[in-house]
Design a protein that fits this description.
556 residues, alpha/beta, Rossmann fold, 3 domains, five-stranded mixed β-sheet, 24% strand, globular
Length: 556
């Protein structure tokens, strides 16, 4: 690809193009298993699990899956939180050519059944204390093999006992490992162009869509993000490198970090779920963390915690990367005031979580998601026609092309054709690119509010609200208005122990926003709805407002 004007702002070590290894994802296991076999691949509930053991037990489980009849192209679900078993199940499934579907353990029966029936998965890994959700699907789900484990199997407790009954087709995870003590390479030949995972978009936009990512897509994402971290990694011996993985491994962002950690011999501290008190305690106790990938809601909870000064984030954590949702500038500034090296990036399920990145050492701009990663090309087009490129400095829809862009949506050629055109992915994100090539997220195309004929971007209002000292979290949505078509409503979680009124929020907004952007309604809440990855869900709030007005199923 020809050199692009924005590449002059890459860090000194960032290549403009990359040679991608012709390997599959599980072949990444060989790197740390050969270089640092005894180093911890995973640190979980006080216990360590080595890179050598991760590779061996992944091979053992791959042999077990072959014995259960799992074939190339079969779909395997992983219904687990962050734990070593997730990593074993993931790499083992990929070794036999299966396609992995990460399943959120918090999914309801209906949500799980939709995923199972959409993908036709036949084998699933689950915990004994969430197994009833799998059992409840019965024959309707069509699952043949259920592999059950205990959440403490790899912790210091080493709990082997399973608390649920095992029926026909139900097998203990530990038994499958024990039956394959001397593993062999799986018989199947897996190609880099084969599908590796089906990553669902979360179901926040109606019927969930499954982005199909190949081994090559995901290896490309690892290779594109790795040089970015070299300025930090070069000063940290491999023996000391650790990443803090609170992001769910079943989410595309967590998945990328797991693969990246293998490639760079980085131990993963696996945390099953985000509980702010527990994470603060962990951060106090741990010696150092090389890389902490997070989402804005996690960081908001951490910086507002009463014990945050005990952590000394600036000394404890080398790099925090925020992604998966736009991060308020105010939050980034607060973290930097604490001495934290924080950077922002952009990606989506359809790009294997990698697309736009900020330089680690070089030029950065407040509020920018950064520059296109090596080998990625972009266009910014008119929102109305999706074709005409807009001048720099003008908002338009982001189109991206590159080696990590998905193969398409699973069994959904219509949706695939809608977003993938001549290799260009229509992201639905509205961005502005400045003269230096840095990109700024304006909003999601579907979140844009049209008030009295004016385009209003909720994220701009969110940024203003986050600057108010009494606001902890905020999000704005468009609600129906008989005169303006739509108007702006803000939902706010106040800081602990403060008194706050709608009038002072509106007055504050009037100081910083044009009149047509100022929220007309304010609602205070104790919390805001979030996805499993920590994104604040505007759609849920918008639907609540529609339901109040008896307009369910209609667009405002």
């Amino acid at each position: 690809m020809e050199e692009k004007f924005w590449q002059r702002y890459y860090d000194y070590n960032m290549p403009t193009t990359i040679r991608y290894p012709h390997i599959t994802i599980p072949e990444l296991l060989q790197i740390p298993a050969n270089v640092l076999p005894d180093k911890a691949a995973a640190i979980y509930e006080g216990a360590e699990f080595s890179f050598f053991d991760l590779r061996m037990q992944s091979l053992q489980m791959a042999n077990a899956l072959e014995g259960l009849g799992v074939k190339k192209g079969d779909r395997v679900g992983i219904h687990l939180p962050n734990c070593p078993q997730y990593l074993i199940a993931y790499y083992a499934s990929l070794m036999v050519g299966a396609i992995v579907i990460g399943l959120n353990p918090a999914y309801t029966h209906d949500e799980l059944l939709t995923m199972v029936k959409t993908t036709g998965l036949t084998t699933v890994f689950t915990l004994d204390d969430t197994a009833d959700r799998i059992r409840a699907m019965g024959h309707e789900g069509g699952i043949k093999n259920v592999i059950v484990t205990n959440r403490h199997l790899y912790s210091k407790k080493r709990e082997m006992k399973i608390s649920c009954d095992l029926g026909a087709g139900w097998i203990k995870f530990s038994d499958l490992l024990a039956q394959n003590i001397e593993p062999k390479r799986p018989r199947v030949q897996v190609e880099t162009t084969d599908p590796a995972i089906i990553q669902f978009t979360g179901g926040t936009t109606g019927v969930p869509k499954g982005a199909v990512l190949s081994h090559a897509n995901m290896i490309a994402a690892v290779m594109q993000t790795s040089p970015r971290m070299y300025p930090i990694l070069q000063f940290i011996p491999p023996e000391r490198r650790k990443s803090l993985i609170i992001l769910p491994l079943y989410h595309v962002y967590g998945n990328l970090v797991a693969n990246w950690s293998l490639f760079n011999c980085v131990s993963q501290i696996l945390v099953p779920r985000f509980q702010v008190d527990e994470v603060i305690e962990l951060l106090i106790e741990v010696d150092e963390i090389t890389y902490f990938p997070a989402v804005p809601t996690m960081l908001t909870a951490l910086v507002n915690h009463p014990r945050i000064k005990e952590v000394n984030l600036g000394r404890k954590v080398h790099v925090i990367n925020t992604g998966a949702a736009p991060c308020p500038v105010e939050l980034i500034e607060r973290l930097r005031d604490m001495g934290v090296f924080v950077t922002e990036a952009w990606g989506m399920s359809e790009t294997a979580s990698l697309g736009i990145v900020n330089p680690i050492l070089g030029k950065k701009k407040p509020g920018s998601i950064g520059l296109p990663a090596p080998d990625n090309d972009i266009r910014i087009v008119d929102i109305s026609d999706g074709k005409t490129e807009v001048p720099r400095g003008q908002p338009g829809e982001l189109l991206i092309k590159g080696p990590s862009v998905m193969m398409g949506y699973w069994n959904n050629p219509e949706e695939t054709a809608e977003v993938l055109k001549d290799g260009w992915l229509h992201t639905g994100d509205i961005v502005v690119q400045d003269e230096d090539g840095f990109l700024f997220i304006v909003d999601r195309k579907k979140d844009m509010i049209i008030a009295g004929g004016f385009n209003v971007y909720p994220r701009e209002i969110d940024e203003v609200l986050y600057r108010h000292p009494k606001v902890k979290e905020a999000v704005t949505v468009g609600i129906p208005d008989p005169y303006r078509g739509e108007t702006v409503k803000a939902f706010i979680v106040p800081q602990e122990g403060v008194e706050i009124t709608a009038e002072e929020i509106i007055a504050f907004c009037k100081e910083h926003l044009a009149p047509y952007k100022v929220p007309r309604e304010i609602e205070f809440r104790n919390s805001l709805p979030q996805s499993a990855a920590g994104k604040i869900l505007r759609k849920v709030l918008r639907e609540e407002e529609m339901e109040k007005r008896g307009m369910v199923g209609k667009n405002p």
